Amino acid sequence: MFKLFFLLSPFILFAQNAQIIYFTDAHQLYELDDIEDGRGGVARLKTVVDIAKKENNETLTIHGGDFVGGVLYGGIYKGNHMPIAFNQIPVDIFNFGQHEFDYGVDHLITLINQIKGTFFTSNLVDDKGNSFHQLPTYLIKKINNQTILFIGLTDQMQTTKKDSRVQQSDLFLSVEKVFKQVKNQLFNQIVVISQMDLAKNRELLKRFPAINLVLTEEVDEYNSQINYVGKTPIIATAGNMSSVAKINLSSHNLPQIEIIPLDKNTIKDKVLAKLEAQEKNNVEKELNQKLAVLEVDLDAFQSLKTESLAGNFVTDAMRDYYKTDLALIDGSGIRKNVEKGDFTYKSARTLLPFGNKMVVVELNGKDFKAFLEQNILSEKPKLIQVAGTKFIINKKSNSIEFPHLENEKKYTLVLNDYNFGKLKNYTRILIGAEDEKSIEDYEVLKIYAEKQQIINPKIENRITIIDYE
């Protein structure tokens, strides 16, 4: 690394300031209404960008990643309504978040082709080891006579839909590869746009001290954070486009950073405000359709810890629709609480916002057991909610007991295509994600709710946990 540092030392030049507007996590076109007067939205973002360009007409606007999928709105439109807004702002540079791939590579490529800004990636490759979609592996931009090298990194690709056409290469080896490719060029600034956690960003700066700035994914939904390794900042703006960072880069001084909340104090651009209002109205009309009456609160976060009412409701709906022996969903796939009262289409999509397609397989009991063990007993455990069976987690022995499953007996199982991508062994696929019989998870929930009319799931000891005490 010391050799690499000295190799990069000649990159430092002297020039005038370069200005960047950075935002990330743009799941929803219009503002979120979970705080007074809302937060985020493309109309407020447009205003901030316009003001910045009046100050410096060569300002670069950068999106750090995750504009497809994620929240309820993302699940409905799958990013389809973002290109028109991004082009009007306009956004100049795009890095990828893993959620860009939630609805498949083909869907993402369609969106990329609609967006005028430049996508790039330094560590996502295809099945032949070439850059994903033949995109640039780095960008070099000249702003006000400053030359800036941009590197783009994406982590956590195991949490999105699997496809051999996009694979995650080692983060740090990918950075080293870029440095080798540009070793004979001079740069005023080296900027990394990363979708990585804080620990990996810190490690990145320790390994590559020539980096001047890291622009990364949100650390907190409502608050922006600036962390430092030495004097090098790691900037994480708030989630769901709630804030932007305005950064001035100078060869003579440390980066000047201003965090700008996209809240009630930011005037909305009139054209994009009209687009926001139209989209919000369309979504509300679709979502307010009443399906049933919910007699209990559904706590989504309980699904991460133990058997939950939400988990039982969702897996019962899946099993009922496809008439299978078993059903499963990982607890993290159930995203948000739903309060008792009218259960609407919005409620269904709130619980399951990603819109994953259903898959039905035949498998042996031992293969079903193996799937639960690989998730629940891993270093980063994920609890699995189930229907059609029960199991006991023994934390003392780090084992799982399955009282009602026979190893060699064949069972039918329904699960979403995300979980299917992690299922290592099965006998055969009965309904694949591309089959006409495969529908989205929230549609299964809608049909089940309309059929039941009264929704009142119970805890049935499907999951028992024996703790250390």
UniProtKB/TrEMBL annotation:
UniProt feature coiled coil, ranges: 268-304
Keyword RNA-binding assigned: no
Single GO term (MF): hydrolase activity
Gene Ontology CC, one term: outer membrane-bounded periplasmic space
Domain (5'-Nucleotidase C-terminal): residue spans on this chain: 302-426
Keywords, in A-Z order: Coiled coil, Hydrolase, Nucleotide-binding, Signal
SUPFAM superfamilies tied to this protein: 5'-nucleotidase (syn. UDP-sugar hydrolase), C-terminal domain (SSF55816), Metallo-dependent phosphatases (SSF56300)
Keyword Nucleotide-binding: yes
A GO BP annotation: nucleotide catabolic process
Signal peptide: 1-15
Xref: Pfam families: 5_nucleotid_C
InterPro entries tied to this protein: 5'-Nucleotdase_C, 5'-Nucleotdase_C_sf, 5_nucleotidase/apyrase, Metallo-depent_PP-like
Record-stated family: Belongs to the 5'-nucleotidase family.
Name this polypeptide is given: 2',3'-cyclic-nucleotide 2'-phosphodiesterase/5'-or 3'-nucleotidase, 5'-nucleotidase family
